[in-house]
Amino acid sequence: RPLPIGDEVRNDFPILSRTVYDRPLVYLDNAATTQKPLCVLDAMRDEYLNVNANVHRGVHYLSQKATDLHEAARERVRSFINARSTNEIVFTRGTTESINLVVSSFCDEFMTEGDEVILSVMEHHSNIVPWQLQAARKGIAIRVIPMNDRGELLVDEFEHLFTDRTRIVSVAHVSNVLGTVNDVDEIVRISHQHGVPVMIDGAQSTPHFKVDVQSMDCDFFVFSGHKMYGPTGVGVLYGKEEWLDRLPPYQGGGEMIESVSFDKTVFAHLPFKFEAGTPDYVATHGLAKAIDYMEEIGLDRISAHERELTRYCMERLRNIDGMRLFGESEGKDAVVSFLVGDIHHLDLGTLLDRLGIAVRTGHHCAEPLMQRLGIQGTVRASFALYNTKEEIDILADGITRVSRMF
Ligand code: PMP
Q: What catalytic reaction does the record list (predicted)?
């Protein structure tokens, strides 16, 4: 049943009809986290009410039911990104934990002092700081793909960053500040030509368009549930089985072992080797429902709707006096970052908030990108499937009104 998009889906998200400061809420902070549809909330409540038991360990009825839901969610995620096998789907707490897992295990096994990782200038801190921790611990080196002023990575320069010490490339699929959709197919192709594996940070792509990890051919792909209508506290690490098999475990504990004695522990097979401790099995079920919800509407329709909102927003904002837009790449996705005149981003964001408009301000966990742009921060509006052109009109009018106060 294809659902309509925009206005009609708003009833699925009761929070969208609330007011803030006696004004209708205009929620444009979706790149930080999306709102959750009733079907996700109901499914999670139902699991706590009727099923709740710890997974994998129990012989009893409820534990088996909870395990079934948890493992069905793994299959749901597998089909969502078209992985070959559920062995390749590791549940984590989110993108950040997925990246830390790969960085830590990969560096342990495959990197020594002087080895290099290639990142891009538009990475989120979560794809910078874990590498820096390893730089401090092991002396690995970080090389950075630059971008042009439209916010597009320079693929030619990327090619020149490879040396015989390059061990891995790790790049965002979509920038959380610029909305640039990076040409990850090309990045993977070039990296593989050099015999180097690639991790793609999909935190800002999975909410917006169909991802196929097999056709992309990346070696690792990571994302968060909460940015795609699912609950907080659950994320995914996809890894090609041949890579996950070769990586050592990240955390030790229950669930990730086959057998333990004080002399020797045999680790569990994939994906459990990377899932120490009780997983958030209710959240994984919620994530599966969020995927159902997105697929019921249709990823293509979501994508087309959000691209149109993005185009419309750029057009409306461009006409405002003193407007500076950041990120002008072709096919940019669902994120619009801007500054107006010399108004501080925090002042602009705070005054928009008083009009009921929720935007984000600051460096967006991408300080190196701010340095590249020569600014301290931006105001960022970011879209989801439930946003409407009327909301963008309210944003544009709000910005005009606020900027007249300065
Ligand atoms: N990478 C990108 C591109 C992001 O936008 C974010 C979230 N802002 C993250 C990583 C981190 O995601 P999380 O906080 O859910 O771990």
A: (sulfur carrier)-H + L-cysteine = (sulfur carrier)-SH + L-alanine
Rounded distance, CA 382 to CA 331, Å? Answer: 15
For residues 336 and 369, membership in a common domain is answered with yes
Mutation pick for ligand 1 pocket among 125, 126, 206, 227 (CB with most ligand atoms within 8 Å): 126
CA-123 nearest atom, ligand 1: 3
Ligand 1 centre to CA of 97 (Å) is: 10
Q: Using the structure block, give the residue that is written with the tokens 């005149």.
A: 341
- Pair (120, 231) in one structural domain: yes
Could you say which residues of the chain have pLDDT below 50? Answer: 1
Specify the ligand 1 atom closest to the Cα of 98.
16
What pLDDT does residue 189 have? 98
Q: Is residue 37 part of a domain?
A: no
Q: Is residue 358 part of a domain?
A: yes
Res 375: pLDDT: 97
Say if residue 19 is in the same domain as residue 137.
no
Residues 211 and 234 in one domain: yes
List pLDDT tens digits, range 87-96: 999 999 999 9
Q: Is residue 165 part of a domain?
A: yes
pLDDT of residue 4: 56
Give the pair of three-digit tokens for residue 204. Answer: 């800002």
Same structural domain, 128 and 248: yes
What is the DSSP code string of 50-86? HT---SSS--SHHHHHHHHHHHHHHHHHHHHHT-S-G
Count structural domains, the chain.
Answer: 2
Write down the ipTM of this complex: 0.99
316: domain CATH number?
3.90.1150.10
Q: How far is the CA of 223 from the centre of ligand 1 (A)?
A: 8
Q: Which residues does ligand 1 sit against, CB inside 6 Å?
A: 31, 94-96, 124, 126, 172, 176, 201, 203-204, 224, 365
Predicted confidence at residue 1, as pLDDT, reads 44
Q: Are residues 270 and 380 in the same domain?
A: no
> Separation of 31 CA from ligand 1 center, angstroms?
8
Among 123, 118, 121, 125, residue whose Cα is nearest residue 168: 118
Rounded CA separation 386/374 (Å): 33
What does the alpha-carbon distance between residue 94 and residue 235 come to, in Å, rounded to a whole number?
Answer: 4
Which ligand 1 atom is the nearest neighbour of the CA of 226?
A: 15
At 54, which amino acid appears?
N
Residue nearest to atom 8 of ligand 1 (CA): 32
Domain that holds residue 267: 42-295
Question: Residue 252: inside a domain, yes or no?
Answer: yes
Last residue of a domain, one of 238, 270, 295: 295
Is the four-CA dihedral 3, 386, 279, 257 of positive or negative sign?
A: positive
- Tell me, in angstroms, the distance from the centre of ligand 1 to residue 135's CA: 21
The reported pLDDT for the residue numbered 58 is 82
